[in-house]
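Service request form, structural biology core

Requester: graduate student, group of Dr. S.
Request type: structure prediction, single chain
Budget code: on file
Notes: please return the result as structure tokens.

Sequence provided:
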Amino acid sequence: MRVALIAKDKPNHLELRLENRAAHIEYLKATDVVEQAGPLLSETGEMVGSLIILMVDDMEQAQRWADNDPYGQAGLFASVELIPWNKVI
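Core staff response, request fulfilled:
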């Protein structure tokens, strides 16, 4: 199943995002469940969150993936939503 992970950063936490970016990207590449991923942007182009499409067996696997994301472990996010998603196009 596909799951959309939508995470919004805590305000004024860009430095924390940048400090953990390399580990986060390595995690994205190493886990074999990420179909698409990229930052959410503010109107000025600053990274303020993440959108990640996961291909997992169930919601528990999606939650485990999110729990082990270096960004989440660093305390970057104000909120994280895991939503079942259906690809149409």
